[in-house]
Automatic annotation (TrEMBL):
Signal peptide stretch: 1-18
KW Signal (keyword) present: yes
Swiss-Prot/TrEMBL keywords: Signal
Taxonomic superkingdom: Bacteria
Name this protein carries in UniProt: Lipocalin-like domain-containing protein
Length: 141
C-alpha cells in the first residue's frame, strides 16, 4: 500500500510541475520563402490574387539574419538583399527589414530603407505598408 501511495504522489508531483505557459515560439518556422498571395487596396472587396496582382514577389529569410526580396512587375525583375530582426510584441511577432540602399520595391510608410512585416494568427505574413495608404500585402510560406 505504501508503494502505491508513493507512486501516486510521485506521479502527481511530476505531472503538475510543468513550465508550459501555452506560448510556443519557434523562429525556425520563419526561415525560407514567403510568396505574395494577395493584394488589397483601401476600397472594400478590392483584393486580387495570383496572376491578377499588379506584381509578383517573394521574401527569402535566411537563418543568419539576412533576407532577399524579389519582385517582378511588367516583366522587370528587381532583387534586393538586406538584414532583418524579429521582435515579439504584445500584438504579435514583427520583422524589421533593413535595406542597404533605397529602391522602389521597399514597401514602407517611413521612407528610411526599412520595411515592417508581421506574422498573422493564420501563419501568413503581412506588410504594414497598408497603414499609410499602401497596398495590403499578404504572404504565405
Amino acid at each position: 500500500m505504501k508503494i502505491l501511495i508513493i507512486f501516486v504522489v510521485f506521479l502527481t508531483i511530476f505531472s503538475s510541475c510543468s513550465k508550459d505557459d501555452g506560448v510556443t515560439i519557434d523562429n525556425s518556422g520563419y526561415y525560407g520563402k514567403w510568396t505574395l498571395v494577395a493584394m488589397s487596396g483601401s476600397i472594400p472587396n478590392s483584393e486580387t490574387t495570383g496572376a491578377a496582382m499588379a506584381w509578383q514577389e517573394f521574401y527569402l529569410f535566411n537563418t543568419n539574419g539576412t533576407f532577399t526580396k524579389s519582385r517582378e512587375e511588367n516583366s522587370v525583375k528587381t532583387t534586393l538583399s538586406g538584414t532583418y530582426t524579429t521582435t515579439t510584441q504584445s500584438d504579435g511577432i514583427f520583422f524589421e527589414l533593413t535595406y542597404p540602399n533605397d529602391s522602389e520595391i521597399i514597401g514602407s510608410c517611413y521612407g528610411n530603407q526599412k520595411e515592417v512585416l508581421f506574422l498573422n494568427a493564420n501563419n501568413s505574413l503581412s506588410s504594414t505598408w497598408s497603414y499609410c495608404d499602401g497596398p495590403g500585402l499578404e504572404y504565405e510560406k
